Amino acid sequence: MSARLSFQGIAHQYDALLALRDFSLDVGAGEVVCLLGPSGCGKTTTLRIAAGVERPSYGTVAIDSRPVAGPGVFVPPEKRGVGLMFQDYALFPHLTVLDNVKFGLHQLPKDEREPIAMRALEGVNMARYARVHPHMLSGGEQQRVALARAMAPNPRIMLMDEPFSGLDNRLRDSVRDEALSLIDQSGASALLVTHDPQEAMRMADRIALMRKGQLVQLGTPQELYYRPVDVQAAAFFSDVNICGGTVSGGLVTCALGSFPAADFEDGTRVDVVLRPSAIDLHSAGIGVDATVRRARLLGEESLIEVEVGGHDALLQVRIRGTWLPAEGTHVKASADPERALLFEKATDA
Ligand code: ATP
User: Fold this and answer.
1) Measured in angstroms, how far is the CA atom of residue 47 from the centroid of ligand 1?
2) Pick from 7, 165, 269, 314: most CB atoms within 10 A?
3) 35 pairs with which residues across the strands?
4) Tell me: the pLDDT tens digits for 262-279?
5) What is the Cα–Cα distance from 50 to 36, expressed in whole angstroms?
6) What is the CA radius of gyration of the chain?
7) Residue 244 forms beta bridges with which residues?
8) How many angstroms does the Cα of residue 45 sit away from the middle of ligand 1?
9) Model-level ipTM above the cut of 0.90
10) 3-state secondary structure of 258
11) What residues does the ABC transporter domain cover (predicted)?
12) Is the dihedral of CA 102, 104, 106, 108 positive or negative?
């Protein structure tokens, strides 16, 4: 069971602060959209507006084309058919796990609540803890119960705010995958807030990248990673190497090499942005001269920092395999022109 969720022309003001501006977004039926962006960019505000715990200053929110917030309309949270899961999962400490999950089902007749709650707990592998109290569970287990509580009423839309951020890495991966598969099975649509680009790429059908209360890019994880709209959007997903150059004859040449720039007029100053994985190092052959300054093994990959003549910052390079050249080694660095991201330089100011 799923529903479309749409924000149209939302602005939201907290006193003098404009937390959201001109924000429009459609979450399709059954789609998982991640709101991604740095702290304070308005992600939580957007989610709270969708949930109905915050009323937008301007604009309309609609679920399946029916306005739930807007001029003269306000449908309260419990009538929106949405499931909520927030960072502080806030299980009631005085209730058992089972009663916590049943609590979310208070709109159902009493005798129907327990079997539905037990099924939800089975779905997250927590049925055996039904009779215990939350303080006896680990963080990951409590988060699973919170997930069961949010999913038990079979919401058409799940709204999740950094729900996995309190968990350690390994646990986070497993709870996250579990959440995703439950959402998938139920067919619900989901809007998920995160500041972690890896999490967004792992979970989202589409990512909505936000900055200063505005949507700056909306697209699939591939689109955001490989075709970011600007340097900042590129830098949100990984370290980036940036070198500046001026376009001439359809090419831009900078300290890291020459790159096709047919989309820019001659004389345009551009930033060439290269992710560390878009650069390769060789002991000899083509490429610009570089000197290794630091090399670290990351597992299947190595992160190597090299110095390149005419380029102020150290160049960050990620290479597959376990090659760890010693400091001072002379190498050649070559960048994949297809992976170079070119942006017109904003201003010289
Ligand atoms: P984070 O990742 O840190 O949670 P966020 O992207 O979710 O950040 P919001 O919590 O939506 O951002 O906050 C957006 C802006 O609105 C911030 O500048 C924040 O300080 C401000 N803000 C949020 N809630 C309130 C409030 N209740 N009253 C006043 N200002 C608020």
Assistant:
1) 11
2) 7
3) 193, 208
4) 999 999 999 999 999 999
5) 16
6) 24
7) 271
8) 6
9) yes
10) strand
11) 5-237
12) negative
Roughly how many angstroms between the first and final C-alpha of the chain, as a whole number? 52
Residue 318 corresponds to which amino acid?
A: R
- Give the position of tokens 């505005």: 214
| Ligand 1 closest atom vs CA 35 | 6
Probe residue for ligand 1, chosen from 10, 15, 35, 43 as the CB with the greatest number of ligand atoms within 8 Å: 43
Mode of pairing for the β-strands spanning 288-297 and 189-194 = unpaired
For the entire predicted model, the pTM comes to 0.91
How many Cα atoms are found within 13 Å in the side-chain-facing hemisphere of 119?
Answer: 12
Tens digits of residue pLDDT in 103-151:
888 888 989 999 999 999 998 889 999 999 999 998 888 888 998 998 8
Q: Name the CA dihedral angle for 304, 307, 309, 315, rounded to a multiple of 10 degrees.
A: 50
Residue 273: strand pairing partners = 242, 341
* pLDDT tens profile 32-49: 999 999 999 999 999 999
- Rounded to an integer, what distance in angstroms lies between the CA atom of residue 166 and that of residue 163? 8
Strand partners, 296: 303
Q: Separation of 86 CA from ligand 1 center, angstroms?
A: 15
Our answer on whether the CB atom of 347 is closer than 6 Å to any ligand 1 atom is: no
Tally of residues, the chain: 349
The full 3-state SS of 127-165, as one line of letters, equals HHHCCCCHHHCCHHHHHHHHHHHHHCCCCCEEEEECCCC
- The encoded tokens of residue 176 equal 């996250």
DSSP track, 210-256: EETTEEEEEE-HHHHHHS-SSHHHHHHHS--EEEEEEEETTEEEETT
- Residue ranges and CATH numbers for the domains of the chain are 5-233 (3.40.50.300), 239-344 (2.40.50.140)
User: Amino acid identity of 297?
Assistant: L
Helix (H, G, I), strand (E, B) or coil at 157: strand
